[in-house]
Amino acid sequence: AKMRDVGIAVIxxxxxxxxxxxxxxxxxxxxxxxxxRSTDVVKQNVVILMATLAKHLRIDDPKVKPIVCKxxxxxxxxxxxxxxxxxxxxxxxxPAIKDLSPQxxxxxxxxxLESEKYGERRGAAxxxxxxxxxxxxxxxxxxxxxxxxxEAITNKKNFKHREGALMAFEQLCSMMxxxxxxxxxxxxxxxxxxxxxxxxxxxxATEKASKAIMAKLSGHGVKLVLPSLLxxxxxxxxxxxxxxxxxxxxxxxxxxxQLSSCLPNIVPRLIExxxxxxxxxQRASQxxxxxxxxxxxxxxxQAIVHLLLSALSDPSKHTDKCLDALMKTSFVxxxxxxxxxxxxxxxxxxxxxxxxxxxxxxxxxxxMLVLTDEKDLKPxxxxxxxxxxSALVDxxxxxxxxxxxxxxxxxxxIGEIPDLMDWLLSMLVSEQSSVDRSGAAxxxxxxxxxxxxxxxxxxxxxxxICLEDETLLPHIREGYLMLFxxxxxxxxxxxxxxxxxxxxxxxxxxxxxxxxxxxxxYKAGQRIVQVYADSAISLFLPRLEDGLFNDNHRIxxxxxxxxxxxxxxxxxxxxxxxxxxxxxxxxxxxxETKKLIIDVLGEERxxxxxxxxxxxxxxxxxxxxxxxxxxxxxxxxxxxxxLKEILPxxxxxxxxxxxxxxxxxxxxxxxxxxxxxxxxxxxxxPEVVPILERALxxxxxxxxxxxxxxxxxxxxxxxxxxxxxxxxxxLPAIRLALTDPCPEVRKSAASTFxxxxxxxxxxxxxxxxxxxxxxxxxxxxxxSEYLIGALRxxxxxxxxxxxxxxxxxxxxxxxNIGALSSLSSVAGEALYEHLDVIITAVIExxxxxxxxxxxxxxxxxxxxxxxxxxxxxxxxxxxxLEDLLKSDDTSTRIFSSTLMITFCNNTHLQVEEHITDxxxxxxxxxxxxxxxxxxxxxxxxxxxxxxxxxxDQVRLVPDLKMSVSMAVDIKYKRDTTYTLxxxxxxxxxxxxxxxxxxxxxxxxxxxxxxxxxxxKEAIQLTDQPALKPSVVQITGPLIRVLGERYTPSIKExxxxxxxxxxxxxxxxxxxxxxxxxxxxxxxxxxxNREVRNKGVIALTKLVSLHNRVDNLFTDIHHGxxxxxxxxxETMFAALHGTMFIGGSNMSDNLALSIAVTLSNHIGxxxxxxxxxxxxxxxxxxxxxxxxxxINLVKNSVLGPASQNKEVKHGRVLAIAxxxxxxxxxxxxxxxxGDLYTALLQYCxxxxxxxxxxxxxxxxxxxxxxxxxxxxxxxxxxxxxxxxRNCAHQSSNDVRSFASNMVHMINISGxxxxxxxxxxxxxxxxxDNTTKKIPLIRSASEVAIATLLRLKESEDIxxxxxxxxxxxxxxxxxxxxxxxxxxxxxxxxxxNYENNIFSFLPKVN
Length: 1404
What we know:
Layout: H1 2-32, H2 37-54, H3 64-74, H4 80-93, H5 101-114, H6 118-135, H7 139-142, H8 145-153, H9 159-176, H10 181-194, H11 200-216, H12 219-232, H13 238-250, H14 256-273, H15 279-294, H16 299-302, H17 305-313, H18 315-328, H19 337-350, H20 355-369, H21 374-377, H22 381-392, H23 397-414, H24 420-428, H25 434-451, H26 453-467, H27 474-490, H28 492-495, H29 499-510, H30 515-532, H31 537-547, H32 553-571, H33 591-601, H34 603-616, H35 622-635, H36 639-658, H37 663-680, H38 685-695, H39 701-717, H40 720-725, H41 727-738, H42 743-760, H43 762-776, H44 781-797, H45 799-810, H46 817-827, H47 835-848, H48 854-866, H49 871-885, H50 890-905, H51 911-923, H52 931-946, H53 950-955, H54 957-967, H55 990-1002, H56 1005-1020, H57 1024-1027, H58 1031-1042, H59 1048-1065, H60 1073-1083, H61 1089-1102, H62 1110-1119, H63 1125-1142, H64 1148-1160, H65 1167-1180, H66 1186-1198, H67 1205-1228, H68 1232-1243, H69 1248-1268, H70 1272-1286, H71 1292-1306, H72 1315-1328, H73 1334-1347, H74 1355-1360, H75 1366-1383
């Protein structure tokens, strides 16, 4: 074969020159050499050489055709090398035999598809490819080659056809190259089918054809083929999927350029197919991946291909092992496209797993990128970048570190990645997590290294501008500050130019309220110190020194810590050792470290730094003190020696801070000064004290204040003996400072006084306070104010010591209320022990103040009350004011009640704890004789009550009700007309109604009832003008409660309250008329009798507000026909009451209709209905038309005789009703005679009910006739009938009832009966007193007492006494003392009318 190749090369190069020489040689050999197995190979090669030589002949040379024929015959040689050579030689010679090409094609197609020998069919495939290449691509269509091959490949019966067609496609693609691509798309579906062919030879041919096709595909061809193959992967038929997979695997044989572009799409899909349910598809995908792995050229990757494939096929089991192998691999050779295709999916999947795996994945990416071509890597960016992004925000710092480095390597390798910086910057200001922001900052720092200085400058400019915005959100500020942690590491040299610019935002960040911003700022500061301590110390050290004295304690702390880090780095120590010792002046530094610090910083700067650190030990913030002490101990070798060295600088700093406007700086300076005094003592006092004295005389307020603080520290740090030595200088200075015009200076001076008192004790009071109190009597104007201000500050500092010393002097007359006020406001709890004395003195002082000065002095007094902040003080104050309110002196009560208002307004007062006592106190003075006291107490009540929460208001309903009840004097308890002056003020009920309203709406049932009863009580005690503003607030809740399901007792209370309110305000309730009517009507149907009765009373009162009553009376009238007896009874009662009050407004037709109903119910079977019906007849008679009334009386009430006892009882009751409610109108219509006649008959009835009703009616007629002076005859007859019934022989009930009627007549308000009538009634009553039946005896006793008018005089007794018969006289004399006693009992004059019409509303 090599010799043939050499021959072909020689002929191709020189054949044209020697064609005439070589051609005869070849022909002669072929003609003369006999056929034998040993010469066949030589002949075949000679034919190939001759064909190669023929390329140099002219096309029309007759020698070409024989050569072509010999080449065609050589195709049958079972040697692929020969067949390949023949095919290559054949193509150039085809133009010479173009006229024979159809026959040649047909012959070779026949041989391709029908030959029994594989070698011949294979040779035919080569020959066909050579012919087509020579004829051109169009010959495939013109000579119907492709249709023939397509038909052959779809022949299911003959595998040779399918195999031959596949071999033809293989060789056509190999020979034609990219020219055959247009036909590849048509061939692909058949290839997919043949991959699953049942014949092994066909499958092998398919595999070879696919490799040949893929190897020759161009970039455009790949784009045409790949979508179809990928789509086939989703086909339901497993064979199609398997074929597509094998074709995709064959794409591994594409040229490297095409392979690089297609693998990113192929491998992920192959990995997906590995999970297919069909095992053959799975195996096909594994085989395809192996094919891709087989073309890897990188030796390092070749060694671990099996691990990569295992990781792709079973990720959960083999990924870790594969990653370990990749981590251990040292990449030396370039990583080609197939390598990336297998590695990237493994690494990408690793980014989705646990932390260790993410870290390994990031490291692998970083290691690979150095040896990867940009063009090979770019297709995988969409897969790699998301994984790196997710790892970049991982909680584990190492994962973020390696991910950031991988990102940096990526940018270095391929340049800026679109949208990457935008994403990083968005994550840098993410609100989600500090981890996200940290990862983004690391990523930006690594990326910035690859992007260069220009991009760094642009980014830093934008960041610094943003950080200047004070309104920047904390998470955004932290994100930007994180850049300063990582930039010094990645772009150290380039970033050094920004050190001075970033210190300001770092220090501002240290002062942030956000803890994570402060932490990040501190880390950034640490990084600056660590990285640039050697090269840029002069840039940041001055800022750290200034930071030690910043107003913000967080900046002071961070500056101190960063200075410590700097000093540790200079010294070469970590600074992490423990410095906890028994003495704060123990040191761990050495002379050697001291020398190192001086060498680096210089002595002057060292002194400033050490002075700042020493002052930090006395900082007002504990954390700063601890940090300063820790650093001092580590860097200083000897504290006293170091203090001597730095003393001038330290004193200068202290004095500067004492004059600072910052309170913290002054406090630090004073503490440092005190600490210096303790340590250096006598060596520093002579120098410092004179300086401070002179500073007190300056005009600078801040400096004077700082001096006071310094003096305080010096006094505290100095022994008593030393203070006394300097007392001649100190005491005047302190007195001067105490009376300074500036309050801040006086306050600081008071601290100095407190320190002085701690040292000198009582002597300080004598030396300082006594002169100040003496000056108080002489100073005026501003000087007096300064003095009081001084005492105030002293009191604030030492109240428990100073107050007992000052109070006795301040309460001496004339009482200095202003001074007491100023001192009380700062006395604190010490004031409570002296409250009794102070408040009493203040009240006395107010009583003696001239009228024009009262207002100012009262303000001072109010300030004293307002200064009481603790519960003990409040209790004492309330007791004191309560006692003072009981004073007989009006002025004392007025001022005490005024202070009570202030007490209730005190914001420190826990009102709910004292409210009951406040209520009892102020409500008890609502009836005070002085109007000012009443108004003040009402204001106090109102103020305290309004401060209660809704929950407290509900809870305190019982307490308020009890307090109101206690406020009413017992002598007015039964007086329904009595009003409480405090409630009668404008809006007097406002707070009380609001509280009760809360109880009614939100309280428990028990509290609701109490609130309603309390409201009723308050309404009773209030006059109409004061009630009117609260009508809406009262009525609404009561209607609401009545509309819901509550206990009968609550409803009764509501109805009682509304009835009382109607009585009080009348027309003011008109806006609620409709609601009230509906509510009251509803109550008439209630299941509880008492609720119904209360509803009747309320409705009776409500009807007086009505102008149009027909609808109401119609509803009630219909209710009288209700089937329920209780409801009917209630409706009759309501009809009675409402008609009596408002019946005159009723239409005549409705009145007539009601009259008919009442006539029909006269003989009702129920006693209560008959009685109520009788009352209704009486009410109706007051307004019924005269003719209708006469008709009603004569036809229904008197009517024809009846033996029915119910009718009799009903009629006599009706008579009683007429006489009870309409007697005057009956007399006017001349109906009295008829009624009189009927009554005499009924009085003689054997029926007890009828007889008693007649007695009642007789009593009512007697009252009317006696009062009018008419009807003497009827009067005589009625008295006789009543007397007879008082001595009724057969019924004790009748006798008792008749006696009650005598009593009723005499308490009705008429004049005394005539002596004859009195005697007529007295005799049976005297006899009754001897009876053993208590009911008769007691009724008779009361009747006699009222009949004789014994309460008024004994005139009647004296006139009747002689006329009595002996027996009656004896009994009467014996009974007379009892009668006199009974006449003095108020119960004797109680109306006994409840025996008849007991349940009907009282309407007159």
